[in-house]
Amino acid sequence: MKTDKRVLDILDAAQDGRATTKEECIFLLQFHETSLEAGLLRAVADAVTRRRFDNGGIVLGQIGIEIAACPGKCKFCSFGDGHTAFTPGVMSDEDILRSAGNFTASEELYALFLMTMHTFDFERLIHIVQMLKGRIPQETQIVVNIGDFDQSQARNLKSAGVNGAYHVCRLREGTDTALAPEERKATIRNIKDSGLDWYYCCEPIGPEHSPQELADQIFIGLEYGCFQHAAMRRVYIPSAPLSPQGQISELRLAQVTSVVALATLACPETKSIAVHEPNLLGLTAGANTVYAETGANPRDTEKNTTGNRGRDINVCKMMLYEAGFENLLTSPRKVVTLTDAYRQ
Ligand code: SF4
Asked: Where are the domains positioned within the chain?
């Protein structure tokens, strides 16, 4: 079996620390996920990530604090207005505290994410952040995953104790969503300008997305300097308008994750690579970070994702262990060993 020579040259360069260019990413994404070339790509991205992050993994946890028919109308999301099957609901302060307590009790969570719909109550969000600040371990960071916000709101979030924000200009934003790509990018600039860590992702990947589209969207993360890059596939939701287009395999998702890992060698701001949802193929193909989830989840048909699609902290930690990671970064300053994770 002959291996494509250009692939070998790109992967050799990546092992020497040279970032993969956009043209090279497009080329690598053209191979089928079961090809020898895609297998070599995953192996090299895995080795590069382990060396880059000292064979350390990260567990993050997200609480979806509310459900509503969302005006984002994203054609892949279970909350989109016009196709959602959910009735609206908001988590109480007590329920949020309980979920945050479950996620942070072992003091292994690097950051706690709070997710809302595209439109949300900004004052209540600030209230929740301030409430959590005194109740979760001091080292645990707080990150928001919310709709678009302006510069003054970004500063208010930072003053309230928020460390970062997940915000994405998604694949086919404005076509498969009712949101404007330029507004998504304006919020990304607000995140960066206010000094918040910016979490990004190539998402939500479906079989219809071309290598060029994937690479263009991946490189937005490099252009603005993301703190975390990632890859996520679209999950089949029966009521979602894009569902007839199908779903990519975890193996294809791992291939995209590998490309993200090698492209971000050009981005000194990038401190971790995630794969959504948590899976071992991604964690052996260049990702070192997975998310636990509870409450509302745009990829679930259950109101509370716990026990359904959502994974808990221990499952995520065990997945990192099974993938061969030896260390767990539990805060920017603290690393614990994963060697005996199975004993707990
Ligand atoms: S992905 Fe976010 S913005 Fe889009 S419909 Fe779902 S909750 Fe709203």
From this structure: 5-337
Q: What is the pLDDT of residues 198-238, one digit of tens each?
A: 999 999 999 999 999 999 999 999 999 999 999 999 999 99
Report helix, strand or coil for 7: helix
pLDDT digits (tens, 9 = 90+) for 15-69: 999 999 999 999 999 999 999 999 999 999 999 999 999 999 999 999 999 999 9
Q: How far apart are CA 62 and CA 137, in angstroms?
A: 16
Q: Which two tokens stand for residue 182?
A: 């330029």
Amino acid occupying residue 244: P
Secondary structure (3-state) at 31: coil
C-beta of 226 in contact with ligand 1 (< 6 A) = no
Is 298 near ligand 1, meaning CB less than 6 Å away? yes
- The CB density around residue 18, as the number of other CB atoms within 10 Å, is 14
Cα–Cα distance list, 275 to 10, 77, 229, 316 (Å): 23, 18, 9, 11
Closest residue by Cα to atom 7, ligand 1, is 117
Per-position DSSP letters for 112-149, written without gaps between them: EEEE--SS--HHHHHHHHHHHHTTS-TT-EEEEE-S--
Long-range contacts of 81-85 (CB under 8 A, 24+ apart): 83/239, 83/240, 83/241, 84/239, 85/239, 85/301
Kindly state the greatest CA–CA separation across the chain: 61
CATH superfamily of this structure's domain 5-337: Aldolase class I (3.20.20.70)
Atom of ligand 1 nearest to the CA of 298: 6
Candidate from 74, 86, 232 with most ligand 1 atoms within 8 A of CB, to mutate: 74
Pocket perturbation via mutation, ligand 1, pick of 73, 79, 179 by most ligand atoms within 8 A of CB: 79
